[in-house]
Write a structure and sequence with these properties.
heterodimer; A: FAD/NAD(P)-binding domain; eight-stranded mixed β-sheet; four-stranded mixed β-sheet; B: alpha/beta; five-stranded parallel β-sheet; 14 helices; binds flavin-adenine dinucleotide; FAD-dep_OxRdtase (chain A); FAD dependent oxidoreductase protein (chain A); FAD/NAD-bd_sf (chain A); oxidoreductase activity (chain A)
Chain lengths: 383, 451
C-alpha cells in the first residue's frame, strides 16, 4: 500500500497550487484528478484576476493571491499571461458611486489602493466606453490571466518537483483511519493512504465532504461566456459594473472576452452549456459598455461547472468532523484569482497546523451554525 | 425540422411531406440544392447541363421535386442555424435572430473541404476546391486565369473538368493518389459503373484539352509574391516539378460538417477509412439521441446519390418512430446504399486515400491555423513541451483552432500533425468540440440590433 503525507482530490487551480505548495514544504504529495488538470472551472473561466469588489472575508486571501500572481514566472516557470491591466468597476448612478467610495475605505484596510474616477476622468481615459456611467473605481493592481494555462502550469511544476499527479483518476471514496485517510480509486483494487487529505473537488467538493459527515449545501452555477475575433488593442482594463452582471476584457491577442448571466450545468453528467438567450443578452450589455464592439464577430460561447455556496463565499478550512481533512471548494464564480493563495494556505494549514492568512469567515462552520439553529437549537455546536 | 436543403435534406423533406407532415427546411444558401447543385444568381444564368454536366438530369429532378413539395413544406433560405438547445433551434435570417421549437430534427448538413496546408496556402489566389467550385457555380467566375488543381478525390477531377469546360486555363491537375494504377485490380469500382466511368470521362476530357495530369505527387510549396500566386512546386517519384499559375485550388476529399450534431449531444466514433470522427448511427439515420436523425455527407462522406437515399431512409425511420413507417421501402433503400458501399470503401481506401503523411510532414514554418496564425512548428513544440496529444489540450495551450473557423479548416490536418509528433494513433488525439455560434455572428446581430 502506497502512503503519502498529503493526498489532494481535485486538480483545479486550488488543488494544483496546494500540491505545489505542499511539495515546496517538503511533503510527499499525490494529486488525484478525475479528468485533466484544469479541465473544469479553473481552465474555462473568464480569466478575471481581481481583488476589487470582494467580500472582506476573502480579501486577505485575495491580497495574498495577488502577490503570487505577480511572481508566477518565478514559481511555475510561466506568467500564464497574467497582466496587471487594472480592474475598472463602473458606477451606473450616484448610489453606486457611494458604494464604490465606501468600498475604497474597506479595501484600504487590506492595503488595496482604489482610485475613484469621475465621469470626466472616464471620458478622457477610456473614451471608448458607452454613455451613462457616473464614474468608476480603478484597482490598478488587478488584471487578467489566461485560465487555460494556469492550473496545468502549477501541475507541471508540482510534478517536476516530485508530486505524483494522477489524471483520469477518480477518487471513489475516502475514509478516516487511525493514522490518516484510506483512499479508494475508481477501477483500482489497491488503496492509497495519506496522512492528510485536501478536498479541492470544486463543484463536487460537498460530495467529498459528505463522506466524512460534513454536510453542506453546494449548488452548481455556469457563468455564460462569449469571445470575439481578435481586434486592434482598444480596451485596457478588465471591466466590471456595479450591480450589473456584464464583465469584459481584451486579451493580449486582441480577442474580447465577456460574460453575463448563467448557462446551464449538470455536475453529474459533467456537462455544461451556454444559453442562446443569455449570450444575446450579454451581447447587448457588451455593446452598451463598449459600443465599438457592435460589428465585431463573436466566434465562440461556452461555460463551465462551478460550485456555489448559499452565501456566495467559498468554504476554506479544516473539517469539523475529520481531523486532517481540509476543504477548499464552492468558490461561487470567483475562485480563479484566489486559487494560487488557496493552495498556499491549504499547504500551511495541513503541514504547519496554521496559516498567517486570516480565513475565519470562510469556515464550513458558518453553515453548520445556521443549519443547527434551524433544526435543533439545543444542539448548538461550539463556534 | 430539417437542416440542409441538399440532396439528403430535399429527399427527406419530400418523404415527410408525402406522409402528410409539414417539415421546416432550413438552409444557409440562397437556393436549395446544397453544395452539389448550387445555382448562380439569375443574372448569370447558365442552364443545368452547363452547370452540372452528368448530374444535370438529377439537378432538374431535384429542382422539380423541390418545386412540387414547396407548398407542403416551410422553407427558410439564407438561414443560418447558430445554436441548438435540446428542442429549440436558434437561427439567423438576414441578420434577424429567431428561436424555433421543434420535436424532431433531421441533420443533412453535408461536408466541407479537407485541406492540408502547404507553404503559401494563405496567399491570395489559393482556394479550397469547394470554394473554386462555388465561384464557378454560384458566381459564374474563375478563381484565376491559370489554375492548378491539387489534392485528391473525385472532386479534384470534377472541378478541374468543370473549369476546363467553362473555358478556364487549367494549368495542371496534381493528384497525390495514383487512382488509375489499381483500377483493374479493383472490382469494387465496378459496383458503381456509372460513377466510375464518369471519373474516367473527366480525366479523358482533361487530357483531350491538353491538361497536364500528374499523379502520385507530393506538394512542396505554393510560390507567391506581392502579386499573388506565381507557381506551385511539387515532387513526383523523387523529381521536382513546377507549374506556373495564378491560382490554386486545394482539396483532399471532404470532411463531414458535424458541429450541429455535436451541440445536439450525439455520440461519435472514429471512422478509420475516412480518418475522421462521425456520428454513430443505426444505418437508417437514427442517432444516439432519440429525436435526432442524420443523413448524407454530414453522417459519412459518401456522395450525393447515397445522400439522397439516406435522406429518404432517415425520414422513413423518423416516421416509423412516430408509428407510421414503411419497412418495405426502407429495406430497398438500405440495399441500395449497401450495394454502393464497396465502391465508396474502395475510393476511401485505395483510389483516393487521404494522404495523412503530408499533414505530418508540413514544414515547421507553414501556417496551419490561419485564423490565429499558428504554425506547424508551434504545434509540434506545444506537443513536445507539454507532452500532450489531445487536440483540445493543444488548442488550450497554443490557440490552435480558436479563431473564426473554430478549427473547421485546420482541425483535420492539425490532428494528424499532433498524432505524428506525439507518435500516437490518430484517434487518440480526439476531436475539437463544436460550440455555438456555429459560424461567427456580429455582436450587433446577436444583440438583436437591426441597424
Ligand atoms: C465560466 C466561468 C467563469 C469564471 N470566471 C472567473 C473569473 O473571472 N475570476 C475568478 O476569480 N473566478 C472565476 N470563475 C470561478 C473559478 O473558475 C473557480 O472558482 C475556480 O476555478 C475553482 O477552482 P477549483 O480548483 O476549486 O475547482 P475546479 O477547477 O472545478 O477543480 C476541481 C476539480 O476536481 C475534480 N474532481 C472532483 N471530484 C473528484 C474526484 N472524486 N476524484 C478526482 N477528481 C475530482 C474535478 O474534475 C475538477 O477538475 C469562473 C468560473 C466559471 C465556470
Amino acid at each position: 500500500m502506497t502512503r503519502f503525507d498529503v493526498a489532494i482530490v481535485g486538480g483545479g487551480l486550488a488543488g494544483c497550487s496546494a500540491a505545489l505548495h505542499a511539495r515546496l514544504k517538503g511533503a510527499s504529495v499525490i494529486l488525484l484528478e478525475r479528468g485533466r488538470c484544469g479541465g473544469q472551472a479553473s481552465g474555462v473561466n473568464y480569466g478575471g484576476v481581481r481583488q476589487q469588489g470582494r467580500h472582506p472575508a476573502e480579501l486577505p486571501l485575495a491580497c495574498r493571491s495577488r502577490q503570487i500572481w505577480g511572481r508566477l514566472a518565478e514559481l511555475v516557470g510561466t506568467d500564464c499571461e497574467f497582466t496587471a491591466t487594472g480592474h475598472l468597476k463602473l458606477a451606473r448612478n450616484d448610489a453606486d458611486m457611494q458604494s464604490l467610495l465606501a468600498y475604497r475605505d474597506i479595501a484600504r484596510d487590506y492595503g488595496i489602493d482604489l482610485e475613484i474616477l469621475s465621469v470626466a476622468d472616464l471620458q478622457c481615459r477610456y473614451p471608448y466606453l458607452g454613455d451613462g456611467y457616473s464614474g468608476a473605481s480603478l484597482c490598478a493592481a488587478d488584471g487578467q490571466a489566461n485560465p487555460r494555462l494556469a492550473a496545468p502550469a502549477f501541475a507541471r511544476k508540482a510534478r517536476e518537483l516530485g508530486v505524483t499527479v494522477r489524471e483520469h483518476c477518480e477518487l471513489e471514496h475516502a475514509e478516516k483511519v487511525a493514522d490518516g485517510f484510506q483512499l479508494t480509486i475508481k477501477g483500482e483494487a489497491e488503496q492509497l493512504t495519506a496522512g492528510r487529505l485536501i478536498n479541492t473537488a470544486g463543484a463536487w467538493g460537498a460530495r467529498v465532504a459528505r463522506w466524512f459527515g460534513d454536510e453542506v449545501d453546494e449548488q452548481v452555477m455556469a457563468p455564460n461566456m462569449c469571445v470575439t475575433e481578435p481586434v486592434a488593442p482598444l480596451i485596457g482594463p478588465n471591466l466590471g459594473i456595479c450591480g450589473g452582471s456584464i464583465y469584459l476584457r481584451q486579451t493580449k491577442n486582441g480577442s474580447v472576452v465577456f460574460g453575463a448571466g448563467l448557462g446551464v450545468a449538470d455536475a453529474d453528467r459533467l456537462w455544461a452549456r451556454p444559453l442562446a438567450h443569455v449570450s444575446m443578452e450579454a451581447a447587448r450589455a457588451a455593446i452598451a459598455m463598449v459600443p465599438q464592439l457592435a460589428n465585431v464577430l463573436v466566434v465562440r460561447t461556452w461555460t463551465g461547472i462551478e460550485g456555489r455556496m448559499p452565501d456566495g463565499l467559498p468554504v476554506l478550512g479544516e473539517s469539523r468532523k475529520a481531523q486532517g481533512l481540509f476543504h477548499a471548494f464552492g468558490f461561487s464564480g470567483h475562485g480563479f484569482q484566489l486559487g494560487p493563495a488557496v493552495g498556499a494556505v491549504l499547504a500551511e494549514l495541513c503541514l504547519d497546523g496554521t496559516s498567517a492568512t486570516p480565513i475565519d469567515g470562510l469556515s464550513l462552520g458558518r453553515f453548520g451554525l445556521a443549519r443547527a439553529l434551524a433544526s435543533a437549537p439545543s444542539m448548538l455546536p461550539k463556534q | 425540422m430539417i437542416i440542409g436543403a441538399g440532396p439528403a435534406g430535399i429527399s427527406a423533406a419530400k418523404t415527410l411531406a408525402a406522409a402528410g407532415e409539414r417539415p421546416v427546411v432550413i438552409d444557409e444558401n440562397v437556393y436549395p440544392g446544397g453544395q452539389i447543385f448550387r445555382r448562380p444568381p439569375a443574372a448569370f444564368a447558365r442552364n443545368e447541363t452547363q452547370l452540372y454536366g452528368f448530374d444535370a438530369s438529377r439537378a432538374r429532378r431535384l429542382k422539380s421535386t423541390f418545386e412540387a413539395i414547396a407548398p407542403s413544406i416551410e422553407y427558410r433560405a439564407e438561414t443560418l442555424v447558430w445554436s441548438v438547445e435540446d428542442r429549440r433551434l436558434h437561427v439567423s435570417t438576414a441578420g434577424i435572430l429567431k428561436c424555433m421549437p421543434f420535436s424532431r430534427i433531421l441533420l443533412a448538413t453535408g461536408a466541407m473541404d479537407r485541406v492540408i496546408p502547404i507553404n503559401g496556402w494563405t496567399a491570395p489566389g489559393v482556394f479550397s476546391l469547394g470554394a473554386a467550385q462555388i465561384a464557378l457555380k454560384a458566381q459564374a467566375t474563375f478563381i484565376g486565369k491559370r489554375v492548378v488543381f491539387i489534392g485528391t478525390g473525385p472532386l479534384l477531377y470534377l472541378v478541374a473538368y468543370q473549369y476546363a469546360k467553362a473555358g478556364a486555363d487549367v494549368a495542371a491537375v496534381l493528384d497525390s493518389s495514383k487512382p488509375f494504377s489499381k483500377i483493374t485490380a479493383l472490382p469494387a469500382l465496378l459496383a458503381d459503373i456509372s460513377n466510375f466511368s464518369r471519373g474516367l470521362f473527366y480525366v479523358s476530357q482533361l487530357r483531350l484539352r491538353g491538361v497536364k495530369i500528374q499523379t502520385a505527387i507530393a506538394p512542396v510549396e505554393i510560390v507567391a509574391g506581392d502579386r499573388g500566386v506565381s507557381s506551385i512546386r511539387y515532387e513526383q517519384s523523387g523529381q521536382q516539378g513546377q507549374s506556373d499559375c495564378d491560382a490554386v485550388a486545394i482539396g483532399y476529399g471532404l470532411r463531414s460538417e458535424t458541429q450541429l450534431a455535436d451541440l445536439l449531444g450525439l455520440s461519435f466514433q472514429f471512422d478509420r477509412r475516412q480518418r475522421q470522427w462521425l456520428p454513430v448511427t443505426d444505418g437508417a439515420g437514427r442517432t444516439s439521441v432519440p429525436h435526432v436523425y442524420i443523413a448524407g455527407d454530414g453522417a459519412s462522406v459518401r456522395g450525393s446519390e447515397v445522400a439522397e437515399w439516406e435522406g429518404e431512409l432517415a425520414a422513413l425511420s423518423l416516421l416509423e418512430d412516430m408509428g407510421r413507417g414503411s419497412q418495405k421501402r426502407a429495406s430497398v433503400l438500405r440495399r441500395r446504399i449497401d450495394s454502393l458501399s464497396p465502391f465508396r470503401r474502395a475510393l476511401d481506401e485505395h483510389v483516393f486515400p487521404f494522404p495523412h503523411h503530408f499533414a505530418e510532414a508540413i514544414r515547421d514554418e507553414t501556417i496551419v491555423c490561419r485564423c490565429e496564425g499558428i504554425t506547424a512548428g508551434q504545434i509540434r513544440e506545444t506537443v513536445a513541451t507539454t507532452g500532450e496529444a489531445d487536440i483540445n489540450r493543444i488548442k488550450a495551450f497554443s490557440r490552435l483552432g480558436m479563431g473564426r473557423c473554430q478549427g473547421r479548416v485546420c482541425g483535420a490536418a492539425a490532428c494528424e500533425l499532433i498524432a505524428a509528433t506525439a507518435r500516437t494513433d490518430i484517434s487518440a488525439t480526439g476531436r475539437l468540440r463544436g460550440q455555438a455560434p456555429l459560424k461567427p455572428i456580429p455582436l450587433s446581430i446577436l444583440a438583436g440590433d437591426r441597424r
